[in-house]
Design a protein that fits this description.
about 110 residues; mainly alpha; about 75% helix; elongated; membrane; transmembrane helix; transmembrane
Length: about 110
């Protein structure tokens, strides 16, 4: 099997698993208040789907959480920071988008 095909198969399986995990998390946090449920969903989204690029001759895109785990295990400060920054960026953008959506919902007239 071609290594490029194996890579895309692995990416597809990871994305489908992440979407499934996010959908299940949405079902779990449904009873919680809306802001807490949304923030916890966004944190899980940032952990699962923040991308980073692996180092080396065959560097490809990978989840940032994997780089963060390797950085913690190897005690590599540079790897920890380079993996944590994309997650924090995704988290910050997600919180900003969530804030704007909540703002728009509160400004919309309630039709009953």
């Amino acid at each position: 099997m071609n290594s490029n095909a194996e890579y895309w198969l692995a990416v597809t399986v990871y994305l489908v698993g992440s979407v499934l995990a996010l959908w299940l998390w949405h079902k779990v946090v449904r009873p919680l208040p809306r802001p807490i449920a949304g923030m916890s969903w966004m944190i899980l989204f940032a952990l699962l789907l923040s991308p980073t690029v692996t180092e080396g001759a065959n560097g490809q895109i990978a989840p940032a959480i994997i780089g963060l785990i390797f950085g913690v295990i190897s005690k590599s400060r540079e790897l920890i920071l380079s993996s944590l920054l994309p997650m924090l960026l995704v988290l910050g953008l997600g919180f900003l988008i969530g804030f704007l959506i909540q703002r728009l919902r509160s400004m919309r007239p309630d039709i009953n």
